[in-house]
Amino acid sequence: MGGQVSRSDFEWVYTDEPHATRRREIMTKYPQVKKLMGHDPNLKYWVFTMVAVQLTIAYMLKDASWPLILLTAYVIGGTINHIMLVAWHEICHNLAFGHARPRANKALGIFGNVIIGFPASISFKKYHLEHHKFQAQDGFDPDLPTVFEGQFFCNSLGKALWVFLLPAFYSLRPLVVRPKPITDYEVINLVLVGIADVLIVYFMSYKSLFYLAIGTLLGLGLHPMASHFIAEHYMFIKGHETYSYYGPMNAFTFNLGYHMEHHDFPNIPGCNLPKLKEIAKEYYDPLPSHSSWPKVIWDFITDPAIGPYCRMKRRSNRARDNGSCDDDPDKDM
Predict the structure, then answer these.
(1) Contact criterion met (CB below 8 Å) for 113 and 189
(2) Residue 223, SS3?
(3) Euclidean distance between CA atoms 84 and 212, whole angstroms
(4) Which of 21, 77, 125, 307 is geometrically suited to a Cys-Cys bond with 92, CB 3.0 to 4.6 A?
(5) What span, in angstroms and rounded, lies between the C-alpha atoms of 180 and 185?
(6) Could you report the per-residue pLDDT of 96-125, keeping only the tens digit for each?
(7) Using one digit for the tens of pLDDT, what is the confidence trace for 191-241?
(8) Which residue spans within the chain are E strands per DSSP?
């Protein structure tokens, strides 16, 4: 049903990803960019605030009707929980407390995980860093859709379902494509979030926990906030694998829209990415960007030229790697 996707395979390329080269050029031309690296001192306060707000709402909804819970979960809970996951994105690059305090960054991520309903903070870090290290490399980049996704969700109705199910695909895909041993921190994450869930049910109600958990699932799927999942790397213009967005939704996402800039310099916190773009504007202004994140979802679903297969993909040149990616890709910068 709906427009059939015209693509039957990924866009295979045989060049390296462009970010490392552009990073070296910008660093050479503008050494002052180093001053933008560091951490965002306000990030921890945003995390504390989101946890407080969500727990307050969860308490207020402990005896609410199911329609009210679902509506609030989509409009408010899904939005806040998605912003929390964007905060994890900053945290996993050690941008909350800096590279010198990795345990503090992990602890903040686990604390923020209290309102998500599912233990995921540490696992997100483990796999997201691989996305940077092995961008678009077959079998290594967990952000790439699988062949099943490309073949099965091949029309407008299927793509709408795929967007709705994005939380499942982003959670399960890495376990299938690139499974890794569970780490001690993941166990700690699991135990602490499990305890938090029990306490929420005990002191509030099971409806409170449902509000938090379903808000996460709704906020990561067919939701305006989730449009960046598609906007960042799906090939809307042939030959371009990363896109930025410079619109107002950056105010709620720690400038995640500056995604080209982020991949060039993952150790620059989101609060400083607009400054990077201003310094090196001749590098970024000519590149294609999205004008609207919500429009991206609409175009993805309705345009037959775009689908899960619409990703650039390259043969891995790191097959000898043992799968470890414990450090940030910009560690030695």
Answers:
(1) yes
(2) coil
(3) 12
(4) 125
(5) 13
(6) 999 999 999 999 999 999 999 999 999 999
(7) 999 999 999 999 999 999 999 999 999 999 999 999 999 999 999 999 999
(8) 11-13, 244-245, 289-290, 312-314
CA distance 187 to 110: 11
**What one-letter code names the amino acid at 186?**
E
| CA-CA-CA-CA dihedral for 154, 158, 162, 168, to nearest 10 | -110
Alpha carbons 104 and 247: distance in angstroms, whole number: 31
Distance CA 174, CA 120 (A): 12
Nearest to 227 by CA among 264, 263, 253: 253
Residue 258 three-state SS:
coil
Name the residue among 208, 188, 211 with its Cα closest to residue 198: 208
Q: Are 145 and 310 in contact (CB under 8 A)?
A: no
Structure tokens at 143: 């952000």
User: Which amino acid is it at 39?
Assistant: H
